[in-house]
Amino acid sequence: MKLTPLAMTLALTLGGSFAAAHAATTASASVPAAAASRSAAKPFLWENATVYFLLTDRFNNANRANDLAYGRQADAAPLRGFMGGDLAGITAKIRAGYFDSLGVNAIWLTPPVEQIHAGTDEGTGKSYGFHGYWAADFTAVDANLGTEQDFRELVDAAHQRGIRVLLDVVMNHTGPVTQADPAWPDDWVRRGPQCAYQDAASTISCTLVENLPDFRTDSDVPVALPPALVAKWQREGRLEREQRELDEFFARTGFPRAPRYYLMKWHADWVRKYGVDGFRADTVKHVEAPVWKELRGVADTAFAEWRRNNPAKRLPDQHFYMTAEVYNYKLADGQLHDLGRGQIANYYQNGFDSLINFGTVPDAGRDYESLFSSYSAMLHGGALEGYSVLNYLASHDFDRPFDAARKQPFVTANKLLLAPGAAQIYYGDETARRLDVADAVGDAKLRSFMNWDELQTNAARDGYRVAEVRAHWAKLGQFRQAHVAVGAGVHQQLQAQPYIFKRTFQRGTLHDKVVVALDLPTSHSTSIPLHGVFADGVTVRDYYSGKRAVVRAGQVNFGTRNALVLIGQD
Predict the structure, then answer these.
(1) 364-423 tens-digit pLDDT
(2) Which residues pair with 194 in a beta bridge?
(3) Is 325 known to be catalytic?
(4) What is the dihedral of CA 69, 71, 77, 83, to 10 degrees?
(5) Which of 269, 294, 325, 454 is catalytic?
(6) Which CATH number does the domain 144-324 belong to among 3.20.20.80, 3.40.1010.10, 3.40.50.300, 3.40.50.1240?
(7) Which pTM was predicted?
(8) 3 state DSSP class of 294
(9) Catalytic status, residue 282
């Protein structure tokens, strides 16, 4: 009998064998409810979040009937067309407990909005908007991905398991212009010049690339709805409703009917209607910084409305959350980002709780203590006190990921999931999905379909097997989920050889502490000196092996021979 990825992963995560994995298939029906209650019961902080980022079209295909909508064809260049993943496929994995078993407590989706219908050649062969960043209509779900009901079910399923949902939003540009996809009116967008990235003006008031019209987010001049959008809504029978909602929005807010305020209304509707918990904002430095603060205000209002209207669905005690993609921002920059020629932007002061840390990739080449201590110093008492970063080592559009060939997936997990700050797992990080696909060009190399087949067959790689990698990531992720101190706590080295550190967290009534030992000898079990973090007589747990032991004489020994020990109290 072939093992499902879930059954195999659960068994391996618990330290079991493939025989245990086979047995797990018969018990999988009981996994979701138990995992859901565990996820919902644990404290959650965005500063310690483990965010799973996926391209919806590349993750899991639950409905093959929607693989090619709007007359799209399977004629794209390698990895540049739709491949069938859909919203229902993500929901299926949520309900199966896949994300719970990884310790994931937030899912970031690429934009689900309706994309341009046709393909276009952007210089790397014919491409379609499978990635979600080529919007044609911000108010509709792209039919390739499913329906509004599919999106609602995804958010509801995530919330039932204590998982937040981050939605990717684009304020910067429309999709490319094609014969089937007309340009937005000139009072909505500019078609040039192309950005030179020398200063603020040549980064913001310009197009990112050729044929990617740039929204006039700087304008306060009222504009009418694009005729093509009006005609589309008329065909779909929802023109009057959309116009009425816009009238109510502009009357309530007092905003002029300028392009950016239409966009804010449309983005916030995903919060108001479905309960999306936060935004990941795309191409942030290509939009005037104050615009994001305005968006945050509109989104906050929408989130409060949804929570009032859905008391049974809302997750406890959380504010709306926003993180930003500011290309090339690194934690060492603190709150300030240089746009060139001495022009500085502070995005933390313009609506964002965190920024994506592009610096994690080069920083991962440093030793553990250098990496961890420098991050902790910035986040606790440094320039980022009160804020956070979202660390990552691979993504969909950064062409220099850490370990693209997946030669060191275990070290990758250690440096990402144990670093201070929130962590972003890019889909397939946990299964060693290759990021150097030979027949693809450019960023398409990073965007292959999720390698479920390799996980199911436990494929062999360079000295490891895929399911072993998945189990390692799961143990670290579950440790993060159980202990907010891992990502949100203050770091301190306790011992250099073997390397041992502690993290401590205290905020109000929430207290947490952990000890981690790395690079231990595997020839024998090791006693871990705890340096007073846990007192004698206390029972602690190793979240890597699952074993418990009592602290004696300031040390603990779990009787294991693993190179990694993750210590905390239940």
Answers:
(1) 999 999 999 999 999 999 999 999 999 999 999 988 999 999 999 999 999 999 999 999
(2) 207
(3) yes
(4) 20
(5) 325
(6) 3.20.20.80
(7) 0.94
(8) helix
(9) yes
